[in-house]
C-alpha cells in the first residue's frame, strides 16, 4: 500500500546529481526512514548520473512510501541502453570502470528492482525494505564477553545540557557539574559557545552554533572547564520542541574516550528478503560508514579509514585527496600511522612508471620491501603489504584509499575489488563534503582577507603594521610567525617581529631564529619551504638532551643556540617563506611555521600568499609615510624659533598647536627675540592656509623680522619691508596677518610696548581689577597691497597686567553654528586675574579645547606676557 509520494524532475546538467541526492535524502528523512537513506542516496546518485551525465537526458524521480519501506523510480529518455536481466549473475567488472554501475548496485543493494520500457522512456526502480527489528528495539547488538566491552573509568557520567533557541544553556545536570566544574547558576543563561572549544582554521568543521541547529548530530569537541582546561567530549545532539512549539536542543556529553556510550551503533544489514540473485553476499559497505554519517569532511574521512581497515582486517589505513590539477595527493586521514606527522603531507599521483606507479589505478603490493618507495606514505612505518584504490567522481580522480598490514602477502585482487566497491560508494559523499569544506573555507578566507585589509589600511605606523601582520596569521594560518624586513637593496634581512601562539615560547623562538642565517630574499611569488629552522631546532633538541644525560656536546652541535626542548618541538614542523614584494622590490619575508612534523594545507598557503601581498603594500606604505613625516618634521623644526629668552621683569608663556597629522609648524607662528640691550621683539602671525606651503612663508616672515629689527628699523618699517618681500614671491605669495611689537622692561616694574597690528586679532590687556581692553588698533594686513601706511602704538603694562596675543584659530573655534569669538575670549580672560602668564595661557587653551568636541581644523598660537612688578625684601 502506497502511503505517501514525492516527485521531482532534474535537468541534464552535472549539478542535478547533487540536487537529486538532496531531494531523496530529505524525502526519506522526512518519512522517518533514516535506516535506508544512505543506500537510497547512493543508488539514486548512480541512476541519475547515468541519465543526466552519460545519457544526456533529464531525469524524473518518484519516491513512494510503503508500509515496509520505500520504492524509488528513476526515469530517463534514453530507452536503447542495454539492461542486464534481473536474477542473472552480476559481473561487477573491472574496478577501473568509470560508469555503468547503477544497475549492478541495484542488484547488490536493493530488496527488489526492475526496469520498465516505453517508446520514449526507460524507468529503473528499486525497493528498499526497512530492517526487521524486534518491537520496541531500534538497534541491537549481540551478547559480548566482558573483555570485549568498551572500557570506562568507573562510573560513566553523562552530562545532560539543554540549549534554548537562542543558543543559551537552559538546563545543567549534576554530571555536567562533576565533569566540567561549573555549578548550574554559573552557566545557565550563557551561550554554549562560551564553553565550547573549536578549530581556528576558517571554514573547517561544523561550528557549535550550526550543530545546535541540526535535527540530530553526533561528534567530538572540547568543553573548557572551570579550571581553564579543555575536556574532550563526545556529544549527541537532539533537536526537540515543547508543547508550545518552542525548539531547543538536548545535548548528551561524555568524555571522548567513553564515546561508545553515546555513539550510534553500526546498522545491522537487512537480510535478503527477495531471494533473488544467487549467492548474493552481504554488502561490506552496509557497515562501512554507519548511520548517521559524519556531517563534516574530517569526521567522514576518519571514519572511512577506520572502516576500511576493519573491513580488510588491516593494521593501518589512509585516505588522500587529490589537488585540483590531479598532480598531487594530500594526506587527509589515517589510522594506525603517525597521523600528526603525515597530515597534509603531499605525494605525487604518478609515483613511477607502470600500473603500480599511478594512484589512478587499483594496486596490490605483496611486499613493500621489494619495491622501496612504491607507497611513499608508508616508508619507515613497518607496513609490508598494501592495497590502494582510487576515488573517482564522473571520471575525475578525487582521491586514493589504502589499507596496509605489517605482514607480507595479506591482500589479493579480491580485496582490491571489495575496497574499490567501497571507494565507489563513498567517493560521492567525500567529494560533496570536500566541496562543502572548500566553499566554507573560501567564504572564511574572503572574510579573513577583508578584515585583514581593513586592519592594515587603518594604520600607517610601521611597528603596528608588523604586529598586525603577525597577529593576523596566528593561529589562523600557522602556529608561529616571523617577519624579516629589508631596509634597502644593500641591506641583509633583519628579524623584526616574532610571534607564537604560546607566549612562553616567543623568547626561545626569537633566540633560535637570531642564530641562523635569514632566508634568501627571492622575489618569486608563492610559498617555498625553508628547512633551516627545523634543522636548527633538531640540533638544539639533541644538544639539550645530551646535556641532560651528561654525555657532553657533539662537535656538530652548535653551541650558540640556547633553546628548550619545548621551543625545538614548536619549530620542528614545516616552515614556509613568502616574499613581501611591494613596488617591484622585496621589502621583507613572511615566515610561517608549524610544530613538529606538521604540514601546511594548500588552501592555507594560498590564503597566506594573498595576505602577504596586502601586508607588503601596507608595510611599504607605512615606510614611505614614516620617511615623509620624518623629513617634514625635520624641516618644520628648523622653522620653529629657538628657546625663548628669559626677560627680567616679564613672564612669557607660549602655547602652539599646528593643525594636521604630522605637522609641527603650520601657517601660525610666533617669535620672541632680543634686539639690543634691554629691548626685545615679539611677534605672532597667521599665514593664509596650513601645511608646508604656509610653513614656507612662516620661515620667511620670522627670519625677516629678526634681521630687520636688529638692523634698527622701527616696527612700521619692519612690516613694510616684510610686506615687499612677501609680494616679491609672486604666485607663491600668501597674505599674512601679523602683530609685531617691541618690549622694554622698566625700572619701576612696568613694561613699555610699541605694537603694530597688521590685520591680526587685536591683543588684549588684562588689568589687575579684571577689566579687559584691546591694546592696539587694527591696520591693513600684509602681502596684498604694495604701499602700506602703518603706524605703531605705545602701551604701558603696569605691574600685574597681562597682554594676551592669539591667532584666529583661537577666536574662530567652532561647534556647529557657535563660535568662541572675541567676546568669548574676553570672557575667559576676565577669570585670569592674578594668574601667572603660564596659567593664563593654559586656561585659555583649555577653554578653546572644551568649546568644541572635534579636533581643531586651524593652527593655534597663544602668547601671554605678564608684568609681575618689583619684589620688595
UniProtKB/TrEMBL annotation:
Supply the Pfam families for this chain: GAF (PF01590), GAF_3 (PF13492), HATPase_c_2 (PF13581), PAS_4 (PF08448), SpoIIE (PF07228)
Spell out the molecular function terms from Gene Ontology.
Answer: phosphatase activity
The record's section on Gene3D superfamilies has:
3.30.450.40, Histidine kinase-like ATPase, C-terminal domain (3.30.565.10), PAS domain (3.30.450.20), PPM-type phosphatase domain (3.60.40.10)
Record keywords, A-Z? Hydrolase
Q: Where is the PAS domain?
A: 160-190
Q: Entry's InterPro entries? A: Bact_Sigma-Reg (IPR052016), GAF (IPR003018), GAF-like_dom_sf (IPR029016), HATPase_C_sf (IPR036890), HATPase_dom (IPR003594), PAS (IPR000014), PAS-like_dom_sf (IPR035965), PAS_4 (IPR013656)
Please identify the protein, giving its name as recorded: PAS domain-containing protein
> What organism does the record attribute this protein to?
Streptomyces capitiformicae
The organism's taxonomic lineage, starting at the top: Bacteria, Bacillati, Actinomycetota, Actinomycetes, Kitasatosporales
Amino acid at each position: 500500500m502506497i502511503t505517501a509520494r514525492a516527485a521531482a524532475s532534474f535537468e541534464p546538467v552535472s549539478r542535478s546529481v547533487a540536487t537529486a541526492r538532496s531531494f531523496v535524502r530529505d524525502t526519506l528523512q522526512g518519512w522517518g526512514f533514516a535506516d535506508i537513506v544512505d543506500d537510497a542516496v547512493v543508488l539514486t546518485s548512480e541512476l541519475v548520473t547515468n541519465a543526466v551525465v552519460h545519457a544526456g537526458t533529464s531525469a524524473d524521480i518518484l519516491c513512494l512510501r510503503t508500509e515496509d519501506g520505500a520504492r524509488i523510480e528513476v526515469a530517463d529518455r534514453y530507452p536503447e541502453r542495454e539492461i542486464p536481466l534481473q536474477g542473472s549473475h552480476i559481473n561487477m567488472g573491472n574496478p577501473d570502470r568509470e560508469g555503468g554501475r547503477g544497475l549492478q548496485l541495484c542488484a547488490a543493494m536493493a530488496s527488489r528492482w526492475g526496469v520498465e520500457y516505453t517508446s520514449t522512456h526507460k524507468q529503473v526502480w528499486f525497493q528498499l525494505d526497512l530492517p526487521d527489528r524486534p518491537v520496541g528495539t531500534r538497534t541491537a547488538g549481540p551478547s559480548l564477553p566482558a573483555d570485549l566491552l568498551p572500557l570506562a573509568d568507573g562510573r560513566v557520567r553523562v552530562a545532560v545540557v539543554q540549549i534554548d533557541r537562542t543558543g543559551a544553556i537552559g538546563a545543567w545536570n549534576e554530571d555536567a557539574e562533576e565533569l566540567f566544574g561549573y555549578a548550574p547558576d554559573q552557566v545557565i543563561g550563557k551561550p554554549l559557545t562560551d564553553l565550547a572549544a573549536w578549530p581556528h582554521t576558517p571554514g573547517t568543521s561544523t561550528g557549535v552554533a550550526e550543530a545546535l541547529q541540526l535535527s540530530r548530530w553526533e561528534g567530538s569537541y572540547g568543553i573548557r572547564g572551570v579550571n581553564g582546561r579543555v575536556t574532550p567530549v563526545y556529544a549527541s545532539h537532539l533537536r526537540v520542541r515543547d508543547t508550545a512549539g518552542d525548539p531547543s536542543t538536548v545535548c548528551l556529553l561524555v568524555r571522548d574516550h567513553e564515546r561508545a556510550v553515546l555513539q550510534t551503533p553500526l546498522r545491522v544489514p537487512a537480510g535478503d528478503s527477495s531471494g533473488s540473485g544467487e549467492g548474493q553476499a552481504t554488502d561490506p559497505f552496509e557497515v562501512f560508514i554507519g548511520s548517521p554519517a559524519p556531517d563534516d569532511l574530517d569526521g567522514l574521512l576518519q571514519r572511512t579509514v577506520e572502516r576500511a581497515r576493519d573491513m580488510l582486517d588491516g593494521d593501518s589505513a589512509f585516505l588522500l585527496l587529490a589537488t585540483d590539477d590531479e598532480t598531487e595527493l594530500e594526506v587527509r586521514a589515517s589510522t594506525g600511522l603517525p597521523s600528526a606527522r603525515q597530515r597534509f603531507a603531499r605525494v605525487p599521483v604518478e609515483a613511477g612508471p607502470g600500473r603500480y606507479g599511478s594512484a589512478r589505478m587499483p594496486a596490490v603490493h605483496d611486499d613493500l620491501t621489494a619495491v622501496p618507495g612504491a607507497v611513499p606514505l608508508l616508508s619507515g612505518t613497518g607496513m609490508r603489504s598494501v592495497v590502494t584504490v582510487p576515488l573517482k567522481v564522473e571520471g575525475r580522480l578525487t582521491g586514493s584509499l589504502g589499507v596496509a598490514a605489517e605482514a607480507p602477502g595479506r591482500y589479493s585482487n579480491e580485496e582490491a575489488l571489495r575496497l574499490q566497491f567501497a571507494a565507489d560508494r563513498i567517493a560521492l559523499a567525500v567529494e560533496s563534503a570536500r566541496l562543502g569544506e572548500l566553499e566554507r573555507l573560501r567564504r572564511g578566507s574572503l572574510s579573513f582577507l577583508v578584515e585583514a585589509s581593513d586592519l592594515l589600511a587603518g594604520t600607517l605606523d610601521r611597528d603596528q603594521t608588523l604586529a598586525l601582520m603577525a597577529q593576523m596569521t596566528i593561529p589562523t594560518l600557522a602556529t608561529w610567525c616571523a617577519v624579516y624586513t629589508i631596509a634597502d637593496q644593500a641591506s641583509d634581512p633583519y628579524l623584526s617581529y616574532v610571534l607564537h601562539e604560546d607566549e612562553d615560547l616567543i623568547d626561545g623562538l626569537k633566540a633560535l631564529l637570531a642564530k641562523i642565517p635569514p632566508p634568501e630574499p627571492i622575489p618569486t611569488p608563492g610559498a617555498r619551504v625553508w628547512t633551516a629552522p627545523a634543522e636548527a631546532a633538531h640540533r638544539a633538541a639533541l644538544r639539550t638532551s645530551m646535556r641532560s644525560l651528561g654525555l657532553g656536546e657533539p662537535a656538530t652541535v652548535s653551541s650558540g643556540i640556547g633553546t628548550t626542548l619545548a621551543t625545538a618541538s614548536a619549530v620542528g614542523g614545516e616552515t614556509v617563506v613568502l616574499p613581501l614584494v611591494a613596488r617591484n622590490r622585496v621589502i621583507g619575508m613572511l615566515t610561517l611555521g608549524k610544530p613538529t612534523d606538521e604540514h601546511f594545507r594548500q588552501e592555507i598557503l594560498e590564503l597566506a600568499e594573498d595576505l602577504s601581498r596586502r601586508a607588503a603594500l601596507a608595510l611599504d606604505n607605512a615606510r614611505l609615510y614614516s620617511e615623509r613625516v620624518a623629513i617634514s618634521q625635520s624641516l618644520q623644526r628648523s622653522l620653529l624659533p629657538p628657546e625663548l629668552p628669559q626677560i627680567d621683569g616679564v613672564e612669557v608663556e607660549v602655547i602652539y598647536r599646528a593643525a594636521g597629522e604630522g605637522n609641527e609648524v603650520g601657517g601660525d607662528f610666533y617669535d620672541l627675540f632680543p634686539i639690543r640691550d634691554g629691548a626685545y621683539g615679539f611677534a605672532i602671525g597667521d599665514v593664509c592656509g596650513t601645511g608646508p606651503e604656509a610653513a614656507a612663508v612662516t620661515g620667511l616672515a620670522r627670519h625677516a623680522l629678526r634681521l630687520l629689527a636688529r638692523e634698527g628699523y622701527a616696527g612700521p618699517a619692519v612690516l613694510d619691508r616684510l610686506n615687499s618681500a612677501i609680494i616679491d614671491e609672486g604666485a607663491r605669495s600668501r597674505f599674512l596677518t601679523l602683530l609685531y611689537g617691541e618690549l622694554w622692561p622698566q625700572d619701576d616694574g612696568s613694561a613699555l610696548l610699541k605694537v603694530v597690528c597688521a590685520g591680526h586679532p587685536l591683543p588684549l590687556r588684562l588689568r589687575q581689577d579684571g577689566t579687559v581692553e584691546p591694546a592696539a588698533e587694527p591696520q591693513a594686513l600684509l602681502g596684498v597691497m604694495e604701499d602700506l601706511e602703518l603706524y605703531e602704538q605705545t602701551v604701558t603694562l603696569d605691574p600685574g597686567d597681562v597682554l594676551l596675543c592669539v591667532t584666529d584659530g583661537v577666536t574662530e573655534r567652532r561647534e556647529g553654528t557657535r563660535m568662541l569669538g572675541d567676546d568669548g575670549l574676553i570672557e575667559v580672560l576676565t577669570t585670569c586675574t592674578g594668574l601667572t602668564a603660564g596659567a593664563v595661557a593654559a586656561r585659555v587653551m583649555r577653554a578653546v579645547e572644551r568649546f568644541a568636541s572635534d579636533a581643531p581644523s586651524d593652527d593655534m598660537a597663544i602668547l601671554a606676557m605678564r608684568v609681575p612688578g618689583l619684589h620688595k625684601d
